[in-house]
Design a protein that fits this description.
Layout lengths: L2 H29 L4 H25 L13 H20 L1 H4 L14 H8 L1
Helix pairs in contact: 1-3
Protein name: Putative periplasmic protein
InterPro entries: LprI-like_N
Pfam families: LprI
């Protein structure tokens, strides 16, 4: 596999992660549709995460504007790091889709898994 192929694959992997992130957010919005304050906070959280993502990418690759600085592998590395951070965000947000178990007293806005299961049926 050539470097160009690896760079393209890394870009495709990021697009898949990005699509999954949007799918998870859409599902959360549907499930929590009656929780207006939560949804406002989810939107703020997502905007802040997107800003933090860019800052983290800038921190990791401060010379991204000069991609040759990092060599021909840069697109793969950049996309790979962005994918990793996006997958972490997805895992975090999926808590609101999985739900909390009976007895979890610090679940905050996360619905009980029983209600989530019934809402999806």
């Amino acid at each position: 596999m050539s470097q160009r192929d690896m760079n393209q694959c890394a870009g495709i992997d990021y697009k898949k992660a990005e699509s999954e992130l949007f799918r998870v957010i859409t599902e959360i919005n549907k499930l929590y549709k009656d929780e207006e304050k939560f949804l406002v906070n989810l939107e703020k959280s997502q905007r802040n995460w997107e800003a933090q993502l860019e800052l983290d990418l800038d921190l990791k690759f401060p010379r991204a504007g000069d991609p040759m600085y990092y060599g021909s592998i840069f697109p793969m590395c950049y996309s790979g790091y962005k994918t990793r951070l996006t997958l972490q965000r997805i895992a975090f947000l999926k808590e609101w889709l999985i739900g909390s178990r009976e007895g979890e007293v610090c679940s905050g806005s996360i619905m009980n898994e029983y209600y989530i299961k019934n809402a999806k049926e």
